[in-house]
Design brief:
Elements (H helix, E strand, L loop, with lengths): L2 H4 L23 E2 L11 H12 L10 H15 L8 E4 L2 H12 L5 E4 L6 H7 L4 E4 L3 E3 L2 E3 L2 H8 L4 E7 L11 H14 L2 E5 L20 H5 L1 E5 L2 H4 L7 E4 L3 H13 L9 H11 L1 H25 L4 E2 L7 E5 L7 H12 L1 E2 L1 E2 L10 E5 L4 H22 L2
Parallel strand pairs: 1-13, 3-4, 3-7, 7-8, 8-9
Antiparallel strand pairs: 2-10, 5-6, 9-10, 11-12, 12-15, 14-15
Helix pairs in contact: 2-11, 3-11, 4-5, 4-10, 6-7, 12-14, 13-14
Length: 395
């Protein structure tokens, strides 16, 4: 029996009326927005959480040694990168870790460099804590995104710039940054005394055959001057269980991070957090490999459909994530308006690109992590909605 038969990704769980953020929508609406998959997680994770629930006691919980072993073992086996046990800090989620790191490693009034268009929560983590965002806009040419290194150096050289937040693989554009790109970034950050915070939550959702390099593995300078956030939550759909690891090789930086996580009450797991991550990393590889194949097929099908039916929409070719970044610049200058129109006209709920800043104002983000029948429903709604939008604009 092959993995596809073992793991049935074609049968979606019913998530309506379940308290799901994604599915808190109208009866006839189809949500394909927030990065949350419409699949049950790996059976090994379900078994571990169920066994823990059956215990019937849900008291204060420690981080067990098996959690450290599981994280270290996964990155070694999966990505050929060796983490040391002392580098790892438990945190109740990647976003809380980012906000805590911003507060602990920068000062109010400092500037934090982000590479836009990028995950919008980065801006909240910076601006809600009294810091200022400096945009290093990614270049966009012939459907490809790249780092503008001249602009990056200019931004990093600002005396008030004290942190750079990376996204690897990049959400929403789907780029996996290379070791060579990271080496250049690391050298610039070392030159200007800027600390790097790398959000690598999507690292296990690469296309089959695509390789991911953690920022800290690029060069010794990158390792020494960085904080990396990783988690099983995105690849195994465990966001509601609130578990992440913060990886900090440098001892001085690590002390600051640990103090911040403890001060913000983020360093203690709930009783399911560590157990779910351990199960995912120890036993979830076959499920994840089957999932990645399924997601890759969905991505290919979506790109082919859009290029055939809507040639004026340009899907950005990506190497990772289940998020499709759609260039709608030929039909709109306002993706917020287009997104609202699609939802009103067809019930299809996508993410408008403007919230990611940079050149995102003419883009939409579509979540492809759903059964194939649901994907086809979404694509048909998208096609009808786009055609209706064009007709309305051309009246």
């Amino acid at each position: 029996m092959n993995d596809r038969q073992t793991f049935n990704f074609d049968a979606p769980p019913d998530r309506r009326q379940s308290g799901s953020l994604k599915w808190d929508v109208g009866k006839d609406e189809l949500p394909m927005w927030v990065a949350d998959m419409d699949f049950q997680t790996a059976p090994a994770v379900v078994e571990a959480v169920t066994a823990r629930a059956r215990a019937g006691v849900y008291g204060y919980t420690i981080v067990p040694e098996r959690w450290y072993d599981a994280v270290i073992g996964w990155w070694k086996a999966r990505h050929n990168v060796s983490f040391q046990r002392d580098w790892l800090c438990f945190c109740a989620g990647v976003v809380p870790a980012i906000t805590s790191a911003v507060k602990r490693l920068t000062n109010a009034g400092d500037k934090v460099v982000v590479q836009t268009p990028v995950y919008d929560i980065f801006f909240h983590s910076v601006e809600n804590t009294g810091r200022t965002v400096l945009e290093n806009r990614l270049t966009y040419e012939n459907g490809n995104y790249a780092v503008d290194f001249d602009d990056l150096e200019q931004k990093l050289s600002d005396p008030l710039a004290t942190m750079l937040i990376l996204c690897n693989p990049h959400n929403p554009v789907g780029r996996i940054w290379t070791k060579e790109e990271f080496a250049r970034i690391g050298a610039l950050c070392e030159k200007y005394g800027v600390t790097v915070l790398s959000d690598e939550i999507h690292c296990d959702l690469t296309d089959p055959g695509a390789e991911y390099t953690p920022y800290i593995a690029a060069t010794p300078a990158c390792a020494k001057n960085s904080v990396t956030c990783v988690s099983a939550s995105k690849a195994f759909n465990l966001a509601g269980l609130q578990s992440a690891a913060v990886v900090v090789p440098d001892e001085n930086l690590r002390h600051k991070i640990v103090r911040g996580l403890n001060s913000d009450e983020l360093a203690e797991p709930n009783c399911f957090a560590a157990e779910s991550a351990i199960a995912a990393f120890e036993k979830g590889a076959p499920w994840l490999d089957a999932l990645r194949e399924y997601l890759f097929e969905n991505k290919r099908a979506a790109v082919a459909f859009i290029e055939r039916e809507l040639p004026f929409i340009a899907p950005v070719r990506s190497q990772a994530t289940y998020l499709l970044w759609l260039d709608c610049g030929k039909i709109t200058e306002d993706s917020d308006e287009l997104c609202a129109f699609l939802r009103r006209k067809t019930g299809l709920y996508l993410s408008a690109g403007g919230q990611y800043r940079g050149n995102g104002g003419t883009f939409l983000r579509m979540n492809l992590a759903c059964p194939k029948a649901r994907l086809q429903d979404g694509l048909q709604r998208f096609s009808r909605g786009i055609q209706a939008y064009r007709e309305e604009k051309n009246r």
